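[Backbone geometry]
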Amino acid sequence: MGLPDKNGYLVFDVGAPSFLDEIRTRLGRTLRAPTLAERLKNLGGVIVGSNVSPGAAYFHDPDHHGHVLHRAGAFGPGGQVLSGEQWPVVSHDATGDSALTDWFCQTVLGEMKPALAVLWLADPDLSMHADLLGSSTHLAGVAAADSCFARVRDAVDRLNDAGDEVLFIVGSDHGQESVGDLVPVEELMITAGLKAAPGSSELVIAPQGASGLVYLSDASRTEAVADWLRAQPFIAAVFAGEAMRSIGQAPADGLAIAFAMSHSDEPNANGVPGRIAICTSGSKPGKPEGFGSHGGIGRYETHPFLMIAGGGFAPGSVETRPSSLVDLAPTILDHLGVLIDGMDGRALAKN
């Protein structure tokens, strides 16, 4: 993500544990909208157990209204630092996922019972990034995650049998496709005369895997930069200015353009379809060719799964209308009987 730096912008890794301090210092805030942890802080609270990147974990609750447990550090309400005796410090792998799942089932669901409990596993995303899609590594990651899912399902069944009414949501935030071309888009902009030099801050690109975000100190340059991007063979789509709203972005804080890298349905050596080009930089070199990645608008990376049980959802029903990650929060609030306001998503239909 690009953040202000003197007369321009610098790119920071949102996944790093230090990013929260950077965004607070440079923008004077974290998120623009209240999290579920803030909305539910007086209504049973939120506990998040995460084994992904620190930044991804902490942005569930960056302002410390609930509990976030992560190997890089755990925090309670008000930013209370929790000791290792109060939460499990697990490894960033399938073994860690398993240990986190056991703690989640026994302690969070069995004893603490917050209004919202979130378990975010490293696999299968971790294994898909680490090898060819469809490889034994990938399939082992899926099997490990499935084992964790079974234990959570059994814990939820016990709660329901005891009289609770649990809304059980299982899903992925994205799919993955095979890495194709690795393209240093910002370097090419220097060659094209659109950026002054390596390290200059008047134009910076924040790579997102199979896409990128362009930050400009001079917004009047937006169309010229967007036109250059549209002319490149490695670009599938360009969203400039207000057009970014269609993909959940907006022109603010220097963000001027979002672009998606090229993609195809081409299968890999294991027969898994989907191939994407990756936007790279010095700090984000991208995964090796053929390994799994995501971040753009490829058919398979934007088609994750979602399963819901309980809470009045009819067994065997299928949601055929377009749905999105932004629909999860209002669906959760609807189940809890909490007012849904100021949200882009909708509560998913129960039949």
